[in-house]
């Protein structure tokens, strides 16, 4: 695992960890190949991202916009770390939260069509500093579409924090402002990332097995 100044880079050769070294729900024991990013490492990286976000955006009221459902764990933990910084610093800012629900995947493939299927009225973002919090950027199409959509509501500033970015030839070239980990082009689950709604109830980020793909196929 290498580090760069902008994120932790997980190489294509990274083997991850044997499932038996960690606590995995029994109902998923044959559905996963390896533990890829253990929960503790996600937490430690998120703590650091919180500091970077506050350094860049901490001058003004932030609206943190969670992209559901995959972003909810990262969102909750990131906000906890930002709140801890606010509690323990002489300089602190109010933060409000908002939610949006998007859907673009069936099985492990992007449908290429992004649907907004829930969330508040986005006009509340007009004139605000918005921090979009997402689980993973794969092709980048979802985020590009969301950014286009938000533009219509004239926010003052928009920054994007994504826990993961996939290295993929299918990328449209979009790169978020804050990235936790850059990962190889594999389908990953856990820590709220799903495969057809399964595996959100798993703490670690893991690589799904062929058995898992078959079992939970849509
Ligand atoms: P994009 O539009 O191709 O960037 O896809 C982004 C969305 O696809 C994410 O918000 C996820 O919901 C989903 N996604 C992409 N790759 C994965 C993965 O490896 N595991 C789980 N969900 C994924």
TrEMBL record:
Reported cofactor(s): Mg(2+)
One annotated GO biological process: purine ribonucleoside salvage
Record-annotated Phosphoribosyltransferase domain positions: 42-195
UniProt keywords, alphabetically: Cytoplasm, Glycosyltransferase, Magnesium, Metal-binding, Nucleotide-binding, Purine salvage, Transferase
GO molecular function, one term: magnesium ion binding
Transmembrane segments annotated in the record for this chain: none
Cellular-component GO terms for this entry: cytosol
Coiled-coil segments: none
Superkingdom of source: Eukaryota
Catalyzed reactions: IMP + diphosphate = hypoxanthine + 5-phospho-alpha-D-ribose 1-diphosphate; GMP + diphosphate = guanine + 5-phospho-alpha-D-ribose 1-diphosphate
Presence of keyword Calcium: no
CDD domains attached to this UniProt entry: PRTases_typeI
Pfam families in the cross-refs: Pribosyltran (PF00156)
Gene3D superfamilies referenced in this protein's UniProt entry, alphabetically: 3.40.50.2020
Subcellular location: Cytoplasm
Pathway: Purine metabolism; IMP biosynthesis via salvage pathway; IMP from hypoxanthine: step 1/1
EC annotation from Swiss-Prot or TrEMBL: 2.4.2.8
This protein's record includes keyword Metal-binding: yes
Entries under NCBIfam families matching the protein: HGPRTase (TIGR01203)
Oligomer status and interactors: Homotetramer.
Family: Belongs to the purine/pyrimidine phosphoribosyltransferase family.
Role: Converts guanine to guanosine monophosphate, and hypoxanthine to inosine monophosphate. Transfers the 5-phosphoribosyl group from 5-phosphoribosylpyrophosphate onto the purine. Plays a central role in the generation of purine nucleotides through the purine salvage pathway.
Protein name, per record: Hypoxanthine phosphoribosyltransferase
Organism field: Cynoglossus semilaevis
